[in-house]
């Protein structure tokens, strides 16, 4: 059985498309034996999700849980505790899967060595503005990294936008900032491999302004620094560090296809330096953790 968990907060305009890309069997390629669990704290998103489930005639295959607004890790725990699937796929309410994405993911688990699988996040935007170009660049850079790492069976973290794993006992810390990274490390520690399936696409709208970009990246990348405090992660190789990023120093330059994109690529360098300075200040100096509500909303990605 397959369980798909969709966590979502204040996303009534996008949750329907997210559910449709999973629950429309002819589109997603999901096996007949499946369930979709939506976890949301707000009425608007729950109502919009229910409306799409009714349209798709999911019936008992669709389950809703009201999250008490304690954050995404807590929402995951609530859903995983009741999940019936042997394979669990997770995503967000502002993301939608590409055609046959779930079919590709499920097929990867035929290899018994695989404990987790990451699909490929891809920008749903063109490259005609600076911020949309940066979104495309970073998504394609991550694809390149995952492809090269997966080819030699080295560890790499899955993407929370489209992530799957065999159901295991999982106690995600309630204050963890990068839940996808935490789950990836736990799978690796269990001795299982993480697979990469680039045919399984997840379409993302990336931030379109400086404030939202920094908020998103400082949380997601900074979350890797936070992982060091958990005993179950200590001793494992840390990824997404400043030094690790230097390995891709020339990627933005090579990625540019014209003068305008070359200029935008150059602007990414100071942007990333500022990002890492903020990560160091907030995570190392201030030891800043999760917000009071447990959810951080990036407005321009909705």
Structure overview:
The chain is an alpha/beta fold and 302 residues long. Helix content is 44%, strand content 17%. The protein has an eight-stranded mixed sheet, sandwiched between helices. Helix 3 links the parallel strand 2 (34-40) and strand 3 (62-66). Helix 1 runs parallel beside helix 3 and helix 8 packs across helix 11. It is globular and about 50 Å long. 41% of the residues are buried. The model has no long low-confidence stretch (mean pLDDT 89).
Average of per-residue pLDDT values? 89
What's the helical proportion of residues?
40-55%
Number of strands: 8
What class would the helix/strand composition place it in? alpha/beta
Can you summarize the main beta sheet? 8 strands, mixed
Shape: globular
Strand order of the largest sheet: 3-2-1-4-7-6-8-5
Order of helices and strands: EHHEHEHEEHEHEHEHHHH
Percentage of residues in strands:
15-25%
What's the number of helices?
A: 11
**Rg, nearest Å:** 18 Å
Spans of 5+ residues with little confidence (pLDDT < 50)? none
Q: Span from first to last CA?
A: 31 Å
Q: Tags for this entry?
A:
8-stranded mixed sheet; alpha/beta; 302 residues
